[in-house]
Design a protein that fits this description.
The complex is a heterodimer of chains A (about 120) and B (about 110). With about 120 residues, chain A is an all-beta fold. The N and C termini of chain A lie far apart (about 40 Å). Chain B is globular and about 35 Å long. In chain B, the strands form 2 sheets. In chain B, strands 2, 4, 5, 6, 9, 10 and 11 form a 7-stranded mixed β-sheet that branches. With about 110 residues, chain B is mainly beta. The chains are: A mainly beta (about 120), B mainly beta (about 110).
Chain lengths: ~120, ~110
């Protein structure tokens, strides 16, 4: 079955430190991969997406992610954390052979940023 | 652009009551979706639609119904509310799978 796994339900970093949020997927067909961010009491906002073009994808707010087929991973990074990055982050996947483009979401990683 | 609009934002229901969660989008997207979000569980797909008049079940459809009479609107109906339906509900729309989704701001529902 196709799935996505986010390692770590909570990640805490200091302001200015590297942010690394991990996402692995399983699929037998080429995936489309997404990262979304959710601020408290808000909906989800698209950060970035991979759709089979460049493997290093740049998104909003200084985030980027690299698609690594050999590792079935799509980890999210940001060189220097800011207090405003504190939120919950969701990795999501759909597949070129999937049903009507329905996204499958990971369980989320809550990022805390310490001053 | 308004994007995806959900109403109401909050609602408390008593067990056995019914209600309709409204969702409207103004982007002319064919695909629309309803998800529920529970703490630590990510988002689970309830129902989806690929166009007016066409709907299908997702992962957790029991206790819910949908209709899609127009491209813009995709209401979610809860019949006989149960405490297990206490959740945050998100509506989303998309042009196609490669573009990702645009989400509404959610409806927080409590069943007591």
């Amino acid at each position: 079955a196709q799935s996505v796994t986010q390692l770590g339900s909570h990640v805490s970093v200091s302001e200015g430190a590297l942010v690394l949020l991990r996402c692995n997927y399983s699929s037998s067909v080429p995936p489309y991969l997404f990262w979304y961010v959710q601020y408290p009491n808000q909906g989800l906002q698209l950060l970035l997406k991979y759709t089979s073009a460049a493997t290093l994808v740049k998104g909003i707010n200084g985030f980027e992610a690299e698609f690594k087929k050999s590792e079935t991973s799509f980890h999210l990074t940001k060189p220097s954390a800011h207090m405003s990055d504190a939120a919950e982050y969701f990795c999501a996947v759909t597949f070129s052979g999937g049903s009507q483009g329905n996204l499958i979401f990971g369980k989320g990683t809550k990022l805390s940023v310490k001053p | 652009n308004a994007g995806v609009t959900q109403t109401p934002k909050f609602r408390i229901l008593k067990i056995g009551q019914s209600m309709t969660l409204q969702c409207a989008q103004d982007m002319n997207h064919n695909y629309m979706y309803w998800y529920r979000q529970d703490p630590g569980m990510g988002l689970k797909l309830i129902y989806y639609s690929v166009g007016a008049g066409i709907t299908d079940k997702g992962e957790v459809p029991n206790g819910y119904n949908v209709s899609r009479s127009t491209t813009e609107d995709f209401p979610l109906r809860l019949e006989l509310a149960a405490p297990s339906q206490t959740s945050v509900y998100f509506c989303a729309s998309s042009r196609d799978r490669a573009y990702g989704y645009t989400f509404g701001s959610g409806t927080r529902l409590t069943v007591v």
